[in-house]
Amino acid sequence: MNNFFESMYELIVETSTNLPKDVRRAIAEAKLKESAGTRSAMSLATITNNIKMADDHVSPICQDTGLPTFKLKVPVGANQIEMKKDIQKAIAKATKDGKLRPNSVDSLTGDNSGDNLGEGTPVIKFEQWEKDYIDARLILKGGGCENKNIQYSLPCELEGLGRAGRDLDGVRKCILHSVYQAQGQGCSAGFIGVGIGGDRTSGYELAKEQLFRHVDDVNENEDLRQLEDYIVEKANELGIGTMGFGGETTLLGCKIGVINRIPASFFVSVAYNCWAYRRLGVKINAENGAITDWFYQDGEKIEFTAEEQTAASHEEETSTREVVLEAPITEEKIRDLKVGDVVKINGMMYTGRDAIHKYLSDNDTPIDLNGQIIYHCGPVMLKDEDGKWHVKAAGPTTSIREEPYQGDIMKRFGIRAVIGKGGMGPKTLQALKEHGGVYLNAIGGAAQYYADCIKSVEGVDLMQFGIPEAMWHLKVEGFTAVVTMDSHGNSLHADVDKSSLEKLAQFKDPVFK
Ligand SMILES: O=C(O)C[C@H](O)C(=O)O
Ligand code: SF4
Prior knowledge:
By secondary structure, the protein is α/β, with parallel strands linked by helices.
């Protein structure tokens, strides 16, 4: 088993940097459905450019490399203790090499272990089987989509859909609702794994297990096969679209599994995975630990090509305006921006996510933020031998988590723009109106694309919160985002939520008897 460590390292690097072939094909198909010039088409172009850049740089597709979860099937007699040690070593090395973001955080103190090792991380699950080789699978599922997982306990009442009873049609309603409630926050278009039955724990386990299925496989259970097809078709009629911008593709795949339950419980558990669906697997020789085959990598590999993705190139088809922003930004300039405008940012921006927002709510800011731009982002950073920081991946994080703080912080420090993804709620919208602020939606998961826009790291504050949570001072060029909430009370997110709820209500009547 002397090659097992190298094999695990290779599995981790490939999973983080090279999107599987079946996922690429699903994204390419979605791209064909969007009309040129729409926000969805533009976002998908950024996504496919990003996939290509991750390939070329062997760098993380998305900066959130998730909670690494390994599932291994091993022959009787294989030494699981040694395998676990090798996996942990490979995780630490991949983190040091900038292929994984340091993501293991002490839940009580907030301390980041720095190497992705810690209580409960990574997750490693073994199962014995009677074959003579090892089947090792890895999924890197990020936090934004994990937060959109949902579990229903039947019977229940669902907004838009009414009562969901304890039968296949009730299950249908729950699954459709799960896609609606995720909106764009889990970086749609997504993939869902569904577990019917079990208890709260095994139901979620089963849902996540479905994410290890091949995108193109066909469910052996005829009822579930029909339900999977139905869900993909109807979820795409909700009009949520890429990043929740509206559009034709909301869901790229749905896989459903079923296990028994006990009479009093009937759970439907849904695991939502973003478009950056990073899961791979390898077949390993149990004697020497070498990789003999890869899973999910059969069929055609779509190599996306770099393409022009600015709104300007589609100016005839849309009325999209492109505005250049550079901090410090005046209130007048902000008031001029409207939902739908595309902005290109040059100059400085400062990262701030969960820890910084909490900190700024009762502390002073380490730098003057008047007229400045805050970027909801937790990057992957590497320090070189001269002590200089380099950005390895830097896409946006889900902004809604900052909803309790954002408005107050903007007003208190004079911040004019925040960049993130998935949109924010009524409290922030009100503050944008009162203060003269704007919310800019960047493309979630496009961590290579945005890293490329960052020309230098000018400084860092509040490093005690760890790399993803520190306040990085970034100098950018041509950083593109869309105005989705403006200072006049308009929110694209609120509009898409409302229209998708109306569409959801069309699926109220029973379909599966
Ligand atoms: O933690 C991050 O960088 C992003 C996260 O996966 C999210 O989607 O919000
Ligand atoms: S930022 Fe988006 S693409 Fe990245 S892990 Fe989070 S949900 Fe997935």
